[in-house]
Amino acid sequence: MRPVTGERELRGVAVYPDIVIGKAHLIDRSRVKILYQCFVNGEELDREVERFKEAVHTVEDQFVSLKRKMPDKVKDQSFILDSHLMILKDGMLYDSTVKTILKEKINAEWALKKSLEEIREVFEQIDDEYISNRISDVENVTERLLRTLSGDTGQSLGEIDQRVIIVAHDLSPADTTELNTARVMGFITDVGGKTSHTAIMAQALEIPAVVGLESATALVEDGDLLIVDGSSGVVVINPDDSAIIHYQEKKLQLQKYKSSIARTSHLPAETPDGCRVAITANIEFLEEVTAAKDYGGEGIGLYRTEFLYLRGKGFPEEEDLFDDYREVVEIMNPAPVTIRTLDLGGDKFASEIAISGESNPALGLRAIRFCLREPEIFKAQLRAILRASLYGKIQLMFPMISGLQELLDAKQILEQVKEELDRDNIEYDTNMEVGIMVEIPSAVAMAEVLARHVDFFSIGTNDLIQYALAIDRINEHVAYMYEPFHPAILRMIRQVVKAARDAGIEVALCGEMAGDPLCVSILLGNGIDRLSMNARSIPLIKKMVRTIPMKQAKADLKKIMALNTAKEVRAYILEGTKRMFPELEEKGYLLD
């Protein structure tokens, strides 16, 4: 331990395991000062309502633009801006503000302020960290609306032109989207927690950050020298020489550890007792393929294909899809690429495609349901995938299959497309494997039947947890209950694996669990054949697989399956992981 010195230390919530030393740059995110105005004239009130609606439209355009310009590193977190877009039109904010303007005859700014206060009162009645963090999202959206109404756009973080550490009361996801990581070395905030969207964005950007410091903006002055330790949650203000030397050495050790993991990332993921597991990458964009290879990915386990449908108006042409798929396959060849067919709807925002706005979109027209309802759109994508299969190994995967009939209907359309290609003398891989995402409880229950009609399963734990536990991942009131260690989820995974084994087909897993260090032993013990994850997680997960004997993983799983609560499961796994990989906690990889 470094001896205590005279410099001031703050402790908050560690977000990303890295250390940075640099000068502070304070960002003024103080609330917009608004004035109360009262109107009598009906035309004036109508004008206020119109001002508010125009502000909503302007902010909506800003969010859509920011989403499209998001750096590749944070593309996977675009759902955060989607949730902010939904907040804009939420009745508690939008409808309430309009009603307040007309009922109380006041200006849009004051009415919006009152709506926020009412929402905050509702949130304050619930004592939960996750939900308290979600109110900050509502506040961020409201603040942007107020700035738009007042004409004060505030300082853009994209305009920072020096190497600095940002100090702010809070940063919205829109703020972090604008960060130039070539200039911004890291950031610290007064508020926020480990589940806040600001924390999630920092992890995606891979920059050191500490949130929830409470008084950072009051104690730090512009230009102060700071040390930000994103592995322990410590911030040192104006450190002395001994502190600087201590943290420089700690940073060097952390970098050495990361490098040691990276050096072995291209080795196969094989347990000490000889069991192989394929470690592949989840991607959403063509540009991510190179990173998948660089991090040691043994293929693409999940290619989400929605981006080409979201980046412009209407649907992409078959040739555009074909060119994209072919390039991905050619770059990865001979490694396999698993392409998931179109999965729009639910929590996937599609501003240019009129399928949203349902009362419960997660249970509505999305994924395979949408494709079966719009067969021509579906066929265009299937043609593009089949044509691209000639340039490498493609596996085709249907999402959100709830039962056998949906699968048979989808396969029938696939056969029709094959017949059309045959008539046109267009070649394709006639042996292309076809599988399904198992992400709905009914599919788990029918896994034994479904396994007889496909070449592989891929368990999508993100949606499986959502549907099995009745948890809306983007509903701030219940998303904190989203629990991968729930015994019901573990039993579902085991049931799907057994059905796959009995049918002699491969079973993969491509949800967030695949890249979670705490889940490695469970998934190994279950006998998952392939884990697919964010490319950045591959080196560490490979290292863990090469360290954990399969015999031990199976023994641990047997004990875990006897536990009855998610809390018990998590505690058992956390203790075992810390015991076997003590450096993970020390280096900040077990932030939970």
Automatic annotation (TrEMBL):
What PROSITE patterns does its record include?
A: PEP_ENZYMES_2 (PS00742)
- Specify which residues bind phosphoenolpyruvate according to the UniProt entry for this protein: R304, R340, N462, D463, R473
The family annotation for this protein states: Belongs to the PEP-utilizing enzyme family.
Name the SUPFAM superfamilies for this protein.
Enzyme I of the PEP:sugar phosphotransferase system HPr-binding (sub)domain (SSF47831), Phosphoenolpyruvate/pyruvate domain (SSF51621), Phosphohistidine domain (SSF52009)
Question: Any idea which GO molecular function terms this record carries?
Answer: kinase activity; metal ion binding; phosphoenolpyruvate-protein phosphotransferase activity
The reaction(s) annotated as catalysed by this protein in its Swiss-Prot or TrEMBL entry are: L-histidyl-[protein] + phosphoenolpyruvate = N(pros)-phospho-L-histidyl-[protein] + pyruvate
Task: Please verify whether the record's keywords include 4Fe-4S.
Answer: no
Q: Cite the PEP-utilising enzyme C-terminal domain residue spans from the record.
A: 261-548
Task: Write the protein's name.
Answer: Phosphoenolpyruvate-protein phosphotransferase
Keywords of the record, alphabetical order, are: Cytoplasm, Kinase, Magnesium, Metal-binding, Phosphotransferase system, Sugar transport, Transferase, Transport
Which Gene3D superfamilies does the UniProt record give?
Answer: Phosphoenolpyruvate-binding domains, Phosphohistidine domain, PtsI, HPr-binding domain
Q: What is the annotated signal peptide range for this record?
A: none
EC number(s) given by UniProt:
2.7.3.9
Where, by residue number, is the active site? H197 (tele-phosphohistidine intermediate), C510 (proton donor)
Pfam families of this UniProt entry?
PEP-utilisers_N, PEP-utilizers, PEP-utilizers_C
Q: Where in the cell is it found?
A: Cytoplasm
* The organism of origin for this protein: Candidatus Desulfacyla euxinica
Q: Name one GO cellular component term.
A: cytoplasm
| Positions of the Phosphotransferase system enzyme I N-terminal domain | 11-134
